[in-house]
C-alpha cells in the first residue's frame, strides 16, 4: 500500500517537472517569427516619422548630406520660420472650423439616413444602399468641373461654408454605410418599446438611438475630422484667398518650381501631426469605454 501511494505521488510530480521544459519554450520559439514581423512593421511605420523629426532640426545641406542621421544641434529656427512663412496661425484656425463643421454636419446627415435605412421601412432602401456603395466607390475628381460651375453660380467658391458642404457630400455615403451597420446591431426591442410609449421617430432617433450609438458617431466624427484636416484637393481648388486656406495648403510656401526646403517642410509636418495625435489620445479612453458599454445601461 505504501509503495502504491508513493508511485501515485511521484507521477504528478514528474509531470509538473517536465511541463516547463518543453511547453513554454516551444511556444516561445513558435512566436519568434510573429515578433520579427511585428518589429519590422513597427520600424516601417515609425521610421519615416523619426526621419521627419530629425530633419525638422536640420538645414537643407545637412539633410542632403545624411537625411537619416540625428541632428547635431537642436535649433528651433525651422519651426519659427515655418510657422511664420506658412501662416499656420490662420490656416490652423481655418482647418479647425472645417473639421468641426464637417464632422457635425456629416454626423447629422449620416445619422438620420442610417436610422432610416436600418429601423424604418423605407421604400427602395436596398436601392439607396446600392447607390451609396457606388457613390463611395466613384472618384470625386469626376465632379470637379460641374461642381465648380455650380459653386460659382451659387457664390460658394472661396468660402469655408462652401467647402464644408462639399465635405458633407463626399463623406456622407461612407458615413451612412458605417452608421447603418452599427445601428443594425441595436436591438429593435428598444425602438418598439419607445413607440409603445408614444415617442415619434425623431424622438427615438434622438433619445434612444443616439445614446446607444454614440461610439459609432464618435468614430465617424474622428474619420471625417481627420479627412478634413488632411484634405488638399478640394481646398486648393475652391479656396483662393490666403486668409481662408486650410493647414494642408501651408506646405506650398516651402517649395517653388525648382526646389523644396525639406527642413521647413518637416517642421510644418509636425505642426500638422501633433494636434491630431493629441486629439486621438484625449478621446481614446472615452471611445473604448463607449464601445464596451452595454445597451441595457
Distance between the termini: 61 Å
Poorly predicted runs are: 1-12, 14-20, 293-297
- Give the helix proportion (percent range): over 70%
Q: What would you call the shape?
A: globular
Describe this structure in words.
The protein has 297 residues and is an all-alpha fold. It has a domain at 86-254: MetI-like fold (Orthogonal Bundle). Helices cover 75% and strands 0% of the residues. The chain is built from 11 helices and no strands. The protein starts with a helix and ends in a 5-residue tail after the last helix. Keywords: Cell membrane, Membrane, Transmembrane, Transmembrane helix, Transport. It comes from Rugosimonospora africana.
What keywords describe this structure?
about 300 residues, mainly alpha, MetI-like fold, 11 helices, about 75% helix, about 0% strand, globular, disordered N terminus, disordered C terminus
Summary, kept brief:
75% of the residues lie in helices and 0% in strands.
Record the SSE blueprint:
Elements: H1 2-55, H2 60-65, H3 77-85, H4 88-119, H5 125-137, H6 144-153, H7 160-183, H8 188-196, H9 201-230, H10 233-238, H11 262-292
Amino acid at each position: 500500500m505504501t509503495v502504491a501511494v508513493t508511485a501515485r505521488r511521484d507521477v504528478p510530480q514528474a509531470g509538473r517537472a517536465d511541463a516547463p521544459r518543453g511547453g513554454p519554450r516551444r511556444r516561445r520559439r513558435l512566436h519568434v517569427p510573429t515578433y520579427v514581423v511585428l518589429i519590422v512593421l513597427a520600424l516601417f511605420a515609425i521610421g519615416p516619422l523619426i526621419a521627419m523629426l530629425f530633419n525638422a532640426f536640420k538645414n537643407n545641406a545637412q539633410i542632403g548630406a545624411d537625411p537619416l542621421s540625428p541632428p547635431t544641434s537642436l535649433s528651433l529656427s525651422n519651426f519659427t520660420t515655418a510657422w511664420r512663412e506658412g501662416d499656420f496661425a490662420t490656416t490652423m484656425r481655418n482647418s479647425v472650423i472645417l473639421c468641426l463643421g464637417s464632422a457635425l454636419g456629416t454626423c447629422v446627415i449620416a445619422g438620420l439616413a442610417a436610422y432610416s435605412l436600418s429601423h424604418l421601412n423605407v421604400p427602395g432602401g436596398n436601392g439607396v444602399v446600392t447607390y451609396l456603395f457606388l457613390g463611395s466607390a466613384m472618384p470625386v475628381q469626376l465632379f470637379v468641373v460641374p461642381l465648380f460651375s455650380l459653386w460659382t453660380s451659387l457664390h460658394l467658391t472661396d468660402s469655408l461654408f462652401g467647402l464644408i458642404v462639399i465635405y458633407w457630400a463626399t463623406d456622407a455615403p461612407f458615413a451612412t454605410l458605417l452608421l447603418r451597420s452599427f445601428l443594425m446591431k441595436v436591438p429593435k426591442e428598444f425602438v418598439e418599446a419607445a413607440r409603445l410609449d408614444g415617442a415619434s421617430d425623431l424622438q427615438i432617433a434622438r433619445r434612444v438611438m443616439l445614446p446607444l450609438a454614440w461610439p459609432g458617431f464618435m468614430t465617424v466624427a474622428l474619420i471625417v475630422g481627420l479627412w478634413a484636416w488632411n484634405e488638399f484637393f478640394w481646398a486648393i481648388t475652391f479656396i483662393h484667398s490666403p486668409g481662408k486656406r486650410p493647414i494642408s495648403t501651408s506646405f506650398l510656401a516651402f517649395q517653388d518650381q525648382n526646389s523644396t526646403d525639406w527642413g521647413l517642410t518637416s517642421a510644418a509636418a509636425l505642426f500638422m501631426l501633433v494636434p491630431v495625435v493629441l486629439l486621438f489620445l484625449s478621446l481614446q479612453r472615452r471611445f473604448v469605454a463607449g464601445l464596451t458599454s452595454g445597451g441595457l445601461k
